[in-house]
Design goal:
Blueprint lengths: L6 H24 L6 H14 L3 E2 L16 E5 L2 E3 L13 E10 L2 E10 L5 H19 L7 H14 L3 E2 L5 E3 L6 E5 L16 E4 L2 E3 L5 E3 L6 E3 L5 E3 L2 E6 L2 E4 L4 H5 L3
Antiparallel strand pairs: 1-4, 2-4, 3-12, 4-5, 6-10, 7-8, 7-9, 9-14, 10-13, 11-12, 14-15
Bound molecules: magnesium ion (2 copies).
One magnesium ion binds next to loops.
């Protein structure tokens, strides 16, 4: 069941999502060779709680195993999503996808950004650029009257057109009082397919894009998803509302991009 949001609810969603944007920027400030993802997690949890919110990912239930132990997902290089923060230092040339969720005043924020650690190869930079572009192509398609399949089509065309893989097993989603609501928002699809996009719809669009095969598998920790060929993957995510017929981006990369990362 899809819950369309009122004007007031969209503004509450914006608050939760802007806090995610600020949290990701705090993490961005700390990312450098030698920092551990556990240190990044600590920064995130403190920042979120200091702002009166709850880190939604912490304790998130898992149908396959233990609940998620941290406040952010940190997925390094060939890890696609759901990486668990650990004590391993990041190295020059790594990429780390940081996914963050907050619950503030009853509504959820959800956004993700793939950061570079020091200098990364041009090949990897290109993967990040194309993945971020694909996110915006999906957003630009999200007008009232279009369909969910139009979003996936736009993302898929852009990524596959650049020779990259589009992960199938994990998709974007509706968001609101729950972090995951209907509808599912795949990063692949056919034009004109799927549910109609309407005013008040709030969705997280989140391309998960791979340099090689789009096939992925789960590590024995029952969380971390990695590419089958161990080639790098990128993940960018915004939460948007369809507002006055148009996409309104509720999360923000503005503070992150000011850092020049
Ligand atoms: Mg997310
Ligand atoms: Mg999400």
């Amino acid at each position: 069941m899809i819950f369309l949001k009122t004007e007031d609810e969209i503004e509450l969603m914006r608050k939760a999502n802007l806090l995610v944007g600020s949290t990701l920027a705090e993490i961005g400030k700390a990312i450098r060779p030698g920092v551990t993802t556990k240190q990044l997690d600590k920064i995130a949890e403190e920042f979120i709680r200091d702002h009166g919110a709850v880190p939604t990912f912490k304790g998130f239930p898992n149908p396959y195993g233990p609940e998620f132990p941290a406040s952010i997902c940190t997925s390094v290089n060939e890890q696609v999503v759901h990486g668990i923060p650990n004590d391993e230092p990041l190295r020059e040339g790594d990429i780390v996808s940081v996914d963050c969720g907050t619950l503030l005043e009853g509504f959820n924020g959800d956004s993700a950004y793939t950061f570079m650690v020091g200098e990364v190869s041009d090949e990897v930079k290109n993967l990040l650029r194309v993945t971020k572009e694909a996110l915006y192509k999906g957003i630009e398609t999200s007008f009232a009257g279009k369909r969910i399949g139009d979003i996936g089509y736009a993302v898929q065309q852009h990524c596959e057109g650049n020779g990259y893989g589009v992960v199938r097993e994990f998709v974007g989603h509706g968001i609101g009082k729950e972090m995951h609501e209907d509808p599912a928002v795949p990063n692949y699809g056919k034009r004109g397919d799927g549910k109609m996009i309407k005013n008040g719809l709030c969705i997280a669009i989140e391309p998960m894009i791979t340099m090689g095969t789009y096939e992925v598998f789960m590590l024995p920790d029952k969380w971390t998803i990695i590419t089958r060929d161990r080639k790098p993957a990128a993940h960018f995510e915004h939460t948007i509302a369809i507002h006055h017929g148009k996409p309104d981006i509720l999360s923000s990369f503005e503070e992150i991009e000011k850092l020049g990362v």
